């Protein structure tokens, strides 16, 4: 199961999924309140997103699966493991590693809120703005080092995802956080992006190691917060390595 980050959609995995499809039956859902996902009802919380993901597993008759997730999806993957629904977890730059009861203190929330507002304001101009490769790199600089490697259509899809994410305000304002996990229910790999501008490894990565001390910790060089953009092959490799740990 591949889980995407906040304001994104299942398409975040489009370049990684083909690298895994020969060996795994993939489940790549879009979260509640995100474009293409189930509609939200009431206040959207991380707990609610994990509930719905569990229901998806139940509907498919699956007691547990290998889970990889990025950002919000990495947090969800960890919570699925806590509930006994994961055989292994590969969490890429997972969210939730900040002081309990507060927003994160890295400025990530403000950056994402600003990004959503800009996307809404520039929606009409997006087809023009995203045409040059250097503009795509600049537009995606908060989540990727090499945003220019995406096509214009992929970049426009990201903009559309951000604009149509109805759960953004609830999720970006959450005071939930990842609780300490001293005993691992399954192999867990915490994968941090070396160039992560939202959750830098020197801050959130350190907290993650303290909260889940038994997890394997890996830093991917030269990639940003959404490493599937910068290096899909390396992402697929680290996911496979985590799955192998559960064998």
TrEMBL record:
This is Alpha/beta hydrolase. Pfam families: Abhydrolase_6. InterPro entries: AB_hydrolase_1 (IPR000073), AB_hydrolase_fold (IPR029058), AB_hydrolase_sf (IPR050266). One of its GO terms (molecular function) is hydrolase activity. The keyword Zinc-finger does not apply. Gene3D superfamilies: alpha/beta hydrolase (3.40.50.1820). It comes from Antrihabitans stalactiti. Keywords: Hydrolase. Residues 2-238 form the AB hydrolase-1 domain. Signal peptide: none annotated. GO terms for cellular component: membrane.
């Amino acid at each position: 199961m591949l889980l995407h980050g906040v304001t994104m959609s299942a398409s975040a995995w489009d370049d990684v999924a083909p690298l895994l499809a020969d060996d795994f039956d993939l489940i790549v859902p879009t979260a509640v309140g995100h474009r293409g996902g189930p509609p939200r009802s009431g206040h959207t919380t991380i707990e609610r997103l994990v509930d719905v993901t569990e229901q998806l597993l139940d509907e498919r008759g699956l007691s547990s699966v290998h889970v990889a997730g990025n950002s919000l999806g990495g947090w969800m993957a960890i919570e699925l493991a806590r509930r006994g629904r994961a055989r292994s977890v590969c969490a890429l730059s997972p969210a939730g590693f900040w002081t309990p009861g507060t927003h994160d203190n890295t400025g990530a929330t403000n950056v994402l809120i600003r990004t959503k507002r800009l996307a809404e304001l520039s929606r009409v101009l997006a087809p023009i703005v995203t045409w040059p490769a250097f503009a795509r790199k600049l537009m995606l600089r908060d989540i990727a080092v090499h945003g220019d490697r995406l096509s214009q259509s992929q970049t426009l899809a990201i903009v559309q995802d951000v604009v149509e994410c109805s759960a953004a305000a609830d999720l970006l304002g959450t005071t939930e956080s990842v609780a300490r996990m001293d005993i691992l229910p399954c192999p867990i790999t915490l994968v941090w992006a070396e160039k992560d501008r939202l959750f830098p490894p020197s801050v959130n990565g350190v907290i993650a190691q303290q909260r889940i001390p038994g997890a394997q910790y890996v830093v991917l060089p030269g990639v940003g917060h959404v490493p599937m953009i910068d290096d899909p092959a390396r992402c697929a490799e680290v996911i496979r390595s985590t799955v192998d740990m559960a064998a």
